Amino acid sequence: MNRVAYLGPEGTFSGILARRRFGAKADLIPCPAIDGVFESVLSGAAPMGLVPVENSSGGTVHDTIDLLIRHAGSIFITQELSLDIRIALLGHQGAAPRTVYSHFTQIKHHSEWLKKHHPGARLVPVTSTTMAAEKAAGSKSAAALASPGAAKIYGLDVLETPGRGSEVNVTNFFTIARQPSPTAGADRTAFVAALKNTCGSLHAFLGPFARQKVSLTRIVSRPVPGQPQTYVFYIEIEGSPTSPKVRRALELAGRQARSLQNLGSFPLGRRFRS
Question: CA 170, CA 131: separation in Å to the nearest integer?
Fold first, then answer.
């Protein structure tokens, strides 16, 4: 039986995707925060974890990137998955919400809709959409932007379904494990680069990828704790080191870096609907 740690509690989009991807027989372990998913995998409590990495509106989930950087060498990305997000305003029928809870990505994605339809409501970000539903359940004047399925779990009503026209709301996720996936046939390779503190160091580091015609698919700079104005870079590229051009680009780029740590080569998995 698959044991998978995910950002809980029950009813989060992480939980929905985990059930869709791993099936009804999977042993899903909800964690209160993203760092709890990493700790579950590191301790062996769960062989695999599922963490959000990017939302099409809210952008990068920096907690996930920071934890990947912190645990580079001990945790590896094994697959990327995506989930089409369906969201609803959950609350109490007949009561106008004065406070709306949700994860910050959903507040950002639906900010214009909220201003138009609930202009006086206080918007409060919380760690997950399910926590938002739990908080809304405790007050008649509160509502939550969450999965419609959370309404049944927390005894709420589906008040409205926010519309964003044809704009897609998608969240990408990583599965993580203590062992890397096989590199053969992988779609992406991720790594952490610490660069020399000199003018043009990033340009020099990225040059080999351009010359070898290796596309970058994601690059995120993150501050180094305790070292002001010092940064490391989370980088993803197309392909894997089994490709001669990828292997050569990594070799040449590595000569321009203070350190280069592998986070794994992995396939792009299915896109699921919530």
Answer: 20
List the domain range (segments joined by +) for residue 153: 88-160
Q: 52 with 174, same domain?
A: yes
Encode pLDDT of 56-79 as tens digits.
Answer: 877 899 999 999 999 999 999 999
- Residue 129 CB neighbour total at 10 angstroms: 27
Q: Is residue 272 part of a domain?
A: no
- Residue 99 and residue 67 share a domain: no
> In this structure, what DSSP letter does residue 85 have?
-
pLDDT of the residue at 165: 47
Phi then psi dihedrals of residue 75, to 5 deg: -125, 140
- Same-domain check for residues 199 and 259: yes
**pLDDT, averaged across the chain:** 92
- CA 183, 188, 194, 199 dihedral sign is positive
| Alpha-carbon distances of 88 from 91, 123, 205, 235, rounded to whole Å | 10, 15, 44, 34
| CATH code of 93's domain | 3.40.190.10
Tens digit of pLDDT for each residue in 151-189? 999 999 999 988 654 467 899 999 999 999 888 778 999
Q: What is the CA radius of gyration of the chain?
A: 20
